[in-house]
Design brief:
Elements: E1 2-4, E2 7-11, H1 18-21, E3 25-27, H2 33-72
């Protein structure tokens, strides 16, 4: 069984199905390993790009009101969000 990146890929063959029964994904031949890796690599790339876009958008949404409030208050260092620190 090929076990890298916390995903087990079992190859069923003449040796038995012990590796295949303990695997997350089962393929019958090595030639099917490349399309499987390309598919899951593409999914991983897409998920990471969504996460990065979400992080930039979240930070922009949180910081834009602070910048506008700084201009409104004349950079007086008053707080925009009422946060109680205990």
């Amino acid at each position: 069984m090929i076990a890298q990146a916390h995903v087990g890929v079992g190859i069923s063959g003449l040796e038995g199905n012990q590796a295949a029964s303990a695997a997350d994904y089962v393929i019958s031949q090595f030639k099917y390993l490349t399309p499987l890796l390309l598919h899951h690599g593409n999914n991983s790339y897409r998920r990471n790009s969504y996460l990065l876009t979400y992080s930039f958008f979240k930070n922009f949404v949180l910081m834009a009101p602070l910048v506008f409030y700084a201009f409104f208050s004349g950079f007086s260092a008053t707080t925009f969000y009422n946060v109680l620190l205990h």
